[in-house]
Amino acid sequence: MSQLISPTASCLCQGVTIHAKNINPKFTVCHCGSCRKWGGGPLFMLHCGADVTFEGEGLLKNTILRLGQHGLFA
């Protein structure tokens, strides 16, 4: 699998756009009860390093998920 360059994604309402310079093609999956409840199934996560920018950041809400873990939601 080749490395993707400058991939872009957005939330469901498309109010927030995420740009990542490099994405590692390997991914992580979480099957915990919280992830399954919030997303309706397992959460798939990509490793993209720190070179990430957001458009529409004003729509993001920082939420404490559990014991110090934070998540951003649009």
Which SSEs are present, and which pair or pack?
Elements: E1 4-5, E2 8-10, E3 17-20, E4 22-30, H1 33-39, E5 43-47, E6 52-55, E7 61-66, E8 69-73
Antiparallel strand pairs: 1-4, 2-3, 3-6, 4-5, 7-8
Question: Describe it for me?
Answer:
Strand 7 (61-66) and strand 8 form a beta hairpin. Helices cover 9% and strands 51% of the residues. The chain has one domain (4-73). The chain is globular and about 30 Å long. It has a three-stranded antiparallel β-sheet with strand order 1-4-5. A three-stranded antiparallel β-sheet has the order 2-3-6, with no helix packed on it. A two-stranded antiparallel sheet has the order 7-8. It has 74 residues and is mainly beta. It has one helix and eight strands; from the N terminus they run E-E-E-E-H-E-E-E-E.
What is this entry, summarized?
With 74 residues, this protein is mainly β. It is built from one helix and eight strands; from the N terminus they run ββββαββββ. It is globular and about 30 Å long.
Number of domains: 1
Assess the beta-strand content as a share of residues.
over 45%
Largest sheet composition: 3 strands, antiparallel
Helix content: under 10%
Q: What is the ordering of alpha helices and beta strands?
A: EEEEHEEEE
Kindly, what is the distance between the CA atoms of the first and last residues, rounded to a whole number of angstroms?
Answer: 30 Å
Rg: 13 Å
Total beta strands: 8
Structural class: mainly beta
Low-confidence stretches: none
Output the strand order for the largest sheet: 1-4-5
Helix count equals 1
Instruction: Tell me the overall shape.
Output: globular
Oligomer class:
single chain
pLDDT averaged residue by residue: 76
